[in-house]
Structure formats: C-alpha cells, structure tokens
Amino acid sequence: MMHMTFYWGREVTILFDSWKTNSWLSYLLSLLILSLFSIFFQYLEDKRIRFKNIKNNNHPSSETNSTTTPLLSSKISGSFGAKIAGAILFGFNSAIGYLLMLAVMSYNGGVLVAIVVGLAVGYFLFRSSDDEAALAVDNPCACA
C-alpha cells in the first residue's frame, strides 16, 4: 500500500518497484544518491543557463525591441546545432527534475529532506554566484 501522507521510516519505494529500501544502510545510500542527483540537477541547470546566455550574447539582437513586441521580433539566435544542444540539455535536465519530484512523491520525510538539502547545496555550489547573466534567468522551480 502506498502512503498518502508524509511518514518517517526506512522502508520506502523510490521511483521503481526494484528500488526499495529495507535496511538503514540501503535507506541512507538511497538518500545520498538522491542528494547527489539534486546537486547534479543544479549543476546542469547552471550549465544550461550559461550556455543559453553565451548563445544569446554571441548574436546581436535585431533592431526590433523584443520585450515590447515579442510576436513581431524576427530574431533568430544561434545556429541549428546550438539550438538542438540546448534543447537536449533542457530535456535531460527537465527529466531529472521530474524524477526528483516523483521521488518526493514517495511521501517519505527523509527523501524530501535529502532532495531539498541536495538542491540547496547544489544551488550554493553552482548558482549562487554574483554573475548577473546567470541570475537573470534564475527560477526556484526544480522542473523549470
């Protein structure tokens, strides 16, 4: 039976039927893995934002102001390969974000704490810089 409220315990199924914890060692290792995935998510998000900023800064904007007339702007930035690479990076990072969200939906308190701590550590390590370009696109949603 799946829990429908948060609980604290070492027996949890995370994402797949084959990923079950039944001892403290397997539970703690699973929490460590989830924290590392959360940190990796923030690392990839930082790389994706920097890649997008580099791609946008390499191409001058058109004379039309895209903030006032976004539908009339005919700005095409970046090459096709760069757009594909950006889309793949976005898709991979979104998949990790959704898997982390689904892991939290196991309703285990330790899983929630491990993921939130991993996201916070990853944010501190990779995304809390004073770089204005990286902060301009900052979004606290783990799946954005």
TrEMBL record:
GO cellular component: plasma membrane
Organism: Lithospermum erythrorhizon (Purple gromwell)
Taxonomy, superkingdom: Eukaryota
Family, as annotated: Belongs to the copper transporter (Ctr) (TC 1.A.56) family. SLC31A subfamily.
Molecular function (Gene Ontology), one example: copper ion transmembrane transporter activity
Membrane topology: Multi-pass membrane protein
Coiled coil stretches, renumbered: none
Signal peptide span: none
Transmembrane segments annotated in the record for this chain: 24-44, 80-101, 107-126
Protein name: Copper transport protein
Keywords: Copper, Copper transport, Ion transport, Membrane, Transmembrane, Transmembrane helix, Transport
Phylogenetic classification of the source organism: Eukaryota, Viridiplantae, Streptophyta, Embryophyta, Tracheophyta
Subcellular location: Membrane
